[in-house]
Amino acid sequence: MEPVDLAAVADDFDREVALTPAIDRFCSSTAWILAAAGALMPPRAAFSFRGQHGYFAAMRGVHPAGFPYVEPVELAWGLAAPLIGRDPVALVEEVVPVLANRRDWQLAIMSGLTVNGPQRRALDATLPARWERRRGQPTVRHVASLEAGMDGFLARRTRDFRKSVRKAERGAVVDGMTFETVRTATAAEANNLYERIQAIELRSWKSRDNVGISQGPMRAFYAAMLPRLAELGQQRTIFARLADRDVGYILGAVMAGEYRGLQFSYDDALARHNIGSLLQLRQIAELCDAGVARYDLGTEMEYKRRWAEDIMETEMLVLVR
C-alpha cells in the first residue's frame, strides 16, 4: 500500500465507499470525514494508504500522555469506517502488514465496524496475537425502510403516529404552510443555502440551548460539508414557509441509494405547527418518489424510534501494541 492524499482522490475513494459492505457509507465518505477532520478533530498527520484492494483512511496523532496513536479520519462520533474496500478480507490482509511494519504508533483505533461484520471477522483472523484488542461501546443508528413508498412507510408506523401526522398535515393546509425543495450544484449555491438554514437555526430551540449548528465547530463542520454535497448532487433540502417566510428546514444527503438525515430545525415560536414532522414526511415522500430505499435517521434519540424500525450497530476496536 502507498500513502495517499484522500482529498486528491476523493471521487475514487467515494466510489469505493459505495461498494464497501456493512459500513455507514455516508459517514465514511469524503464529504463527512474531511469536513470533520478540519472542523471537529485536533491537528494530526496524514496516515492514509491506497492498495490493490482499497483504502485505509486514517490519521496519526500524539496523545497528551506522550504515546502516538492512529485513528480514523473522523472520530468525533466514531461513525466513519477506516477500512474501505469491497473485499474486506483482501483489504485487511493488505492493511495489517502496513501497521505491523510501522513503528510510529502504539495504539490504533478502528471505528465503524459492524458488529460481527466482515471487516471485524477479517481483523480477528489477521491481527498479530501479541496485539491487545479492546472492544468499544457500540453506536446505534435508527434506520427506516422506504419500501412500498409512503403508503408502506406509514403502514409500518403505529396508529397513533399516523393519526398525529394526518392532523399536522390538515393543520398545515389550513395555516397556508408551503414547502420549497432546494437543490444546489455549486459551492456558491451551497453557501447561500447555508445562510437560509442559519437564519432558521438562530430562531430554534437548538440555538437557544447551544446544541444546534448556529455556532462553533458544528457550524464550521456543515459549512465545509455542504459544498461537497452540492457538487456531488447528494444534498437534499426542503424549507417550510409560512406567510412568505422560512420557518423550518430539513437537510440530508443521498448516497448509494440511502438517505442520511443530517439536521432539521424550525422557528421555536411556531412549535405548535409540528413543523419538524411535516418536513420529515415531505422529505420521505420525495425520497420514495426517487426510489431511495432506506432512511438513516442517525444516532440514538428517543423520537427516532417512532420513525424507524431497524437499527444499524457499529463498534470500535482498539488495538494496543
Account of the 3D structure:
The chain is α+β, with helices and mostly antiparallel strands and 321 residues long. Helix content is 39%, strand content 28%. The chain has 12 helices and 16 strands. The strands form 2 sheets. Strands 2, 5, 6, 8, 9, 10, 11, 12, 13, 14, 15 and 16 form a 12-stranded mixed beta sheet that branches. The chain has a 4-stranded antiparallel beta sheet with strand order 1-3-4-7. Helix 3 (30-39) runs antiparallel to helix 10 (216-232), helix 4 packs across helix 5 (118-126) and helix 7 packs across helix 11. The longest helix is centred in the middle third of the chain and has 17 residues, at 159-175. The protein is elongated and about 65 Å long. The two termini are 21 Å apart. The model has no long low-confidence stretch (mean pLDDT 96).
Key structural traits:
321 residues; twelve-stranded mixed β-sheet; four-stranded antiparallel β-sheet; 12 helices; 28% strand; elongated
Shape: elongated
Task: Estimate what percentage of residues fall within beta strands.
Answer: 25-35%
Instruction: Tell me the helix content.
Output: 25-40%
Low-confidence stretches: none
Structural class: alpha+beta
| Biggest sheet layout | 12 strands, mixed
Q: Tell me the series of helices and strands, N- to C-terminal.
A: EHHHEEEEEEHEHEEHHEHHHEEEHEHE
Radius of gyration: 21 Å
The count of DSSP E runs of length 2 or more, i.e. the number of strands, is 16
Number of helices: 12
Mean pLDDT: 96
N-to-C terminal Cα separation, in Å? 21 Å
